[in-house]
C-alpha cells in the first residue's frame, strides 16, 4: 500500500472517530438534559461535543502517524541489511562496492530483464520480495495501531474529561511544530554554509580571503593548464557590492522618504489609497525584469550620456546597476517610513502647529526626528535587500572584479560571483566552488548584522510612545 | 461714555443674539465671536455661538461631552483647519481683526493664540529644545544667550524651573505627567502669545499636579487672556471669572462664574451643575 493510500485511510478513520466521539457525548448530554429542570438547563455550561470528537480523532490519527514516520525512517536500512545477508548466503561477491551494486539493482526494470546476469536477477527478485513484506508489515502495523487507538480513544472520552484543554494543547503542539520547521531549516542552512566555508578556509587562509585584493577563482585542474593562478581575495567583491548598494541607497532614500512624507502628510485620502499600492508594486516586479531594463536601457543611456560630455563610461557600469536597484528598493524605504510617520501621534502635530509652526517645519523638526528610528529601520532593510540583490547586477554590472570606487567602471558583486562560481557542471570539492560558500557566509553575516541593527532600532522606536 | 450707556449698548447687542441667557459680551473684548457655526461635512457641531472673551480674564467653557466646547475652542486658533471636512462660518475677531480673513496667516495667528492640549504632548526632544522650539521657528531671539534667557524665563513662569534646571538636556518625555503639562505651558508661553487656549489641561493629571496647574493659570491671567475647557466644575469655579455653558452645540448661558454656580438662570445650566445629567 502506498503512503498516500495509508494517509488517506487514516484520515477517513479519524473522521469516523470524530463523528463517533461527538455522537457519544451528544447522546449523554441529551440524557442529562431530560433529567434536569428547564431553569437549570439554560444556565448549565457544557464543553461542546465537537471537542470530544476532536480528541477522539487525535487518538486515531497521531499515534499511527508517529509510528508510520518511524517505520518510514527505519525500513530501508532493514531491507538493505536483509539483502546483504541474503547475498552473503548466496555467495554473491560485490567486491566492497555494495552501494554501487545496490543502486544498479534498484534501477533494473522488471519488464526488461533479458540481458541481465542471472545473479543480479536473483538479487533483484529478493529485493522486490523484501520490499513487499516491508510494505505489508507497515500497513498492518499502522492500521492495527490506528484501530486500537480509535477504540481506546472512543472508550476513554467521557463527559468528565477536559476535552477542550486537550484540544488546545494539541493545537499548541501543532503550531510549535510548524514554527520549529522554519527555525530548523534556517539553522540547517546556516550550518551547511558554515561547514563548507570551514572546508574552504582549510585550503585558502581566512586572511587571504578577507584582505586579498585579487579575485580570479579559475583553478587549474592539471598542472600544465594556463590561467591557473587562482586568487581568492574578496575585497574587490565587497567594495563592488558596497559601491552599487551605496548608489542604490543614494537614489532610494531621498526619493522614498520624500514620497513617504507626501503620502502620509500631504496626499488626500483618495490619492494615498491609490498611490501607495502602486508604489508597493515596484517591490513586486521580478528583479530579472529590472535586470534587463538596467542592461538594455539604463546602461547604454548612461554610457552615451557620459560620452557626450567626454567621460569614459563602461557599458556595464556600477552606476546603471545602482540606479535601477535604487528604484527597486524605493518601496522598502517609502512604505516603512510612511507607516512610522503616520504612527507619530496626532498630538505631536497639533502641539507643533499650535505653536505656530508651518506644516513643513512640523515635518522637519518634529515628525522626522520622532519617526527617525523607524525610518532608519526601513533604510537598513532596503540596504540588506540591495546587498543581497543578484539579477540586476548579473545583467547590468558585469563580471570583472575591478577594485575601484568609481561608479562609471564595471564592478562585480559578491552575489554575482556566487552565481558564476556555481553555474554549470561543478564538483563541490574544489576551492573554486567552496569559495561560493565562504562568500555566502560573509554575505549572510553582513545582512544579519544589518537586520539585527534594524530590528533593534525599530524596537526602540516602539517603546517611544508607550 | 458712562457705565450706563455701555450697559445699554451691551443689552441691545444681546437682544439681537437673544438665544443665549446671561451676558456673553464684554466691553473691551480681546476675542469677539459672532454667529459661529461649525460643520463636520454635513453634521453641524456648533450652532450660532456668539461670545466675547475679555482682556486678562479666565473664561471657562463647561458642558457635557460632545457639546462642542472643544470644537469651539479649536476655532479660536484655527486648529480645525487641519481637519479637511471641517467648515467654520460666522465672525471671529481678535483685536478687531477677522481671523478667518483670506489674508490672515493661520501660522501667525497660532503664534498669537497659543494652545495647551488635554494630554501632555512634549516633543521627543530635550526639555530645553521643547521650550526653545517656538522661539526658534519664529526667530524671536537673535543669539544663544537671549534664547537661554527666554527658555529660563518661560520655565520660571510655568513654575517648572526648580525641578528641571539641572537637567535641561534630558528628554521632555521623561518628566512626570504634571511636569510634562507644565513643560507644554512653558513651551506655549515662550512664543509670547496674547491668548492661551487650554483644552482640559488637567484632566490627565493627579490632584496635586492639578492644583499646581490651577495656581499657574491664576498667575498667568495677569498677562494673558485664557480660555479653558474643563469637565471639572470645581476647577471652573476656582480658576475662572466667567463661565460659559454649552449644550448640544449651543451656548446656553454665560455669566460671572459665581453667579453661574450659585444662581444659574437657565434650567439646563442648573441641571448640569447640580449633576442631574452630563
How many structural domains does the protein architecture of chain A include?
Answer: 2
| Beta strands of chain A, count | 2
User: Count of DSSP helices of chain B?
Assistant: 11
CATH class of the largest domain in chain A: Mainly Alpha
> Whole-Å distance between the termini of chain A?
59 Å
Helix residue percentage of chain B? 25-40%
Q: State the end-to-end distance of chain B.
A: 42 Å
CATH architecture of the largest domain in chain A: Orthogonal Bundle
Broad CATH class of the domain at 23-121 and 195-273 in chain B: Alpha Beta
Summarize the structure.
Chain A has 16 helices and two strands. Chain A has about 475 residues and is mainly α. Chain A folds into two domains: about 5-160, no CATH class; about 215-220 and about 230-465, MetI-like (MetI-like fold), CATH 1.10.3720.
Characterise the protein shown here:
- The complex is a heterodimer of chains A (466) and B (278).
- Chain A is mainly α and 466 residues long.
- Chain A folds into 2 domains: 159 residues, no CATH class; 240 residues, MetI-like fold (Orthogonal Bundle).
- Chain A is built from 16 helices and 2 strands.
- Chain A has a two-stranded antiparallel ribbon with strand order 1-2.
- In chain A, helix 8 runs antiparallel to helix 13.
- Chain B is of the alpha/beta class.
- Chain B has a domain of 178 residues: Rossmann fold.
- In chain B, 38% of the residues lie in helices and 25% in strands.
- In chain B, the strands form 2 sheets. In chain B, strands 1-11-10-4-9-8-7 form a 7-stranded mixed β-sheet, sandwiched between helices.
- The mean pLDDT of chain B is 87.
- At the A-B interface, helix 12 and helix 13 of A face helix 3, helix 4 and helix 7 of B.
Name its key features.
heterodimer; A: 466 residues; mainly alpha; MetI-like fold; 2 domains; 76% helix; B: alpha/beta; Rossmann fold; 7-stranded mixed β-sheet; globular
Amino acid at each position: 500500500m502506498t503512503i498516500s493510500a495509508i494517509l488517506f485511510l487514516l484520515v477517513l478513520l479519524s473522521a469516523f472517530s470524530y463523528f463517533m466521539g461527538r455522537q457519544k457525548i451528544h447522546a449523554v448530554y441529551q440524557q442529562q438534559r431530560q433529567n434536569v429542570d428547564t431553569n437549570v438547563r439554560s444556565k448549565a455550561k457544557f464543553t461542546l461535543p465537537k471537542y470530544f470528537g476532536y480528541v477522539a480523532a487525535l487518538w486515531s490519527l497521531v499515534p499511527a502517524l508517529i509510528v508510520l514516520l518511524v517505520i518510514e525512517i527505519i525500513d530501508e536500512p532493514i531491507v538493505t541489511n536483509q539483502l546483504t545477508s541474503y547475498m552473503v548466503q548466496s555467495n554473491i561477491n560485490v567486491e566492497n562496492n555494495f552501494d554501487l551494486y545496490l543502486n544498479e539493482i534498484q534501477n533494473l526494470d522488471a519488464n526488461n530483464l533479458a540481458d541481465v546476469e542471472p545473479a543480479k536477477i536473483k538479487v533483484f527478485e529478493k529485493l522486490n520480495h523484501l520490499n513487499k513484506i516491508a510494505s505489508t508489515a507497515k500497513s498492518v502495523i499502522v492500521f492495527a495501531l490506528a484501530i486500537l487507538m480509535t477504540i481506546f480513544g472512543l472508550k476513554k472520552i467521557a463527559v468528565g474529561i477536559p476535552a477542550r484543554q486537550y484540544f488546545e494543547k494539541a493545537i499548541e503542539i501543532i503550531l510549535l511544530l510548524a514554527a520549529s520547521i522554519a527555525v530548523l531549516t534556517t539553522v540547517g542552512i546556516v550550518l551547511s554554509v558554515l561547514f563548507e566555508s570551514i572546508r574552504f578556509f582549510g585550503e585558502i587562509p581566512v586572511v587571504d580571503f578577507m584582505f586579498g585584493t585579487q579575485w580570479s577563482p579559475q583553478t587549474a585542474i592539471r598542472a600544465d593548464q594556463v590561467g591557473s593562478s587562482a586568487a581568492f581575495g574578496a575585497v574587490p567583491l565587497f567594495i563592488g557590492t558596497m559601491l552599487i548598494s551605496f548608489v542604490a541607497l543614494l537614489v532610494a532614500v531621498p526619493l522614498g522618504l520624500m514620497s513617504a512624507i507626501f503620502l502620509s502628510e500631504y496626499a488626500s485620502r483618495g490619492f494615498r489609497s491609490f498611490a501607495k499600492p502602486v508604489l508597493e508594486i515596484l517591490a513586486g516586479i521580478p528583479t530579472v525584469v529590472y535586470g534587463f531594463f538596467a542592461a538594455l536601457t539604463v546602461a547604454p543611456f548612461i554610457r552615451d550620456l557620459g560620452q557626450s560630455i567626454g567621460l569614459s563610461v563602461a557599458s556595464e557600469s556600477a552606476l546603471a546597476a545602482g540606479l535601477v536597484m535604487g528604484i527597486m528598493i524605493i518601496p522598502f524605504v517609502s512604505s516603512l517610513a510612511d507607516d512610522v510617520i503616520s504612527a507619530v501621534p496626532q498630538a505631536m502635530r497639533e502641539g507643533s502647529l499650535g505653536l505656530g509652526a508651518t506644516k513643513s517645519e512640523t515635518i522637519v523638526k518634529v515628525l522626522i526626528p520622532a519617526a527617525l528610528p523607524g525610518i532608519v529601520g526601513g533604510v537598513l532593510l532596503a540596504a540588506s535587500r540591495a546587498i543581497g540583490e543578484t539579477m540586476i547586477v548579473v545583467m547590468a554590472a558585469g563580471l570583472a572584479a575591478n577594485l575601484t570606487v568609481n561608479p562609471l567602471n564595471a564592478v562585480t558583486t559578491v552575489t554575482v560571483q556566487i552565481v558564476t562560481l556555481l553555474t554549470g557542471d561543478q564538483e563541490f570539492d574544489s576551492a573554486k566552488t567552496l569559495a561560493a560558500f565562504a562568500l555566502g557566509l560573509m554575505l549572510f553575516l553582513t545582512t544579519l548584522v544589518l537586520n539585527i541593527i534594524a530590528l533593534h532600532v525599530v524596537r526602540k522606536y516602539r517603546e517611544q510612545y508607550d | 461714555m458712562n457705565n450706563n450707556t455701555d450697559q445699554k449698548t451691551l443689552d441691545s447687542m444681546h437682544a439681537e443674539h437673544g438665544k443665549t441667557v446671561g451676558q456673553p459680551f464684554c466691553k473691551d473684548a480681546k476675542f469677539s465671536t459672532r454667529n459661529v457655526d461649525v460643520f463636520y461635512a454635513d453634521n453641524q457641531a456648533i450652532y450660532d455661538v456668539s461670545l466675547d472673551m475679555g482682556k486678562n480674564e479666565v473664561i471657562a467653557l463647561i458642558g457635557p461631552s460632545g457639546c462642542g466646547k472643544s470644537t469651539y475652542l479649536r476655532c479660536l486658533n484655527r486648529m480645525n483647519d487641519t481637519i479637511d471636512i471641517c467648515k467654520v462660518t460666522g465672525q471671529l475677531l481678535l483685536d478687531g481683526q477677522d481671523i478667518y480673513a483670506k489674508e490672515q496667516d493661520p501660522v501667525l495667528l497660532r503664534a498669537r493664540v497659543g494652545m495647551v492640549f488635554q494630554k501632555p504632548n512634549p516633543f521627543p526632544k530635550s526639555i530645553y529644545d521643547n521650550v526653545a522650539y517656538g522661539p526658534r521657528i519664529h526667530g524671536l531671539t537673535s543669539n544663544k544667550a537671549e534664547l537661554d534667557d527666554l527658555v529660563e524665563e518661560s520655565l520660571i513662569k510655568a513654575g517648572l524651573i526648580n525641578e528641571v534646571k539641572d537637567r535641561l538636556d534630558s528628554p521632555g518625555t521623561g518628566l512626570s505627567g504634571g511636569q510634562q503639562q507644565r513643560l507644554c505651558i512653558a513651551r506655549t508661553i515662550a512664543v509670547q502669545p496674547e491668548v492661551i487656549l487650554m483644552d482640559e489641561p488637567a484632566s490627565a493629571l493627579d490632584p496635586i499636579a492639578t492644583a499646581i496647574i490651577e495656581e499657574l493659570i491664576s498667575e498667568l491671567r495677569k498677562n494673558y487672556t485664557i480660555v479653558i475647557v474643563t469637565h471639572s466644575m470645581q476647577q471652573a469655579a476656582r480658576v475662572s471669572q466667567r463661565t460659559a455653558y454649552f449644550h448640544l452645540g449651543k451656548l446656553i448661558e454665560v455669566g460671572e462664574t459665581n453667579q453661574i454656580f450659585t444662581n444659574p438662570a437657565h434650567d439646563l445650566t442648573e441641571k448640569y451643575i447640580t449633576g442631574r445629567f452630563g
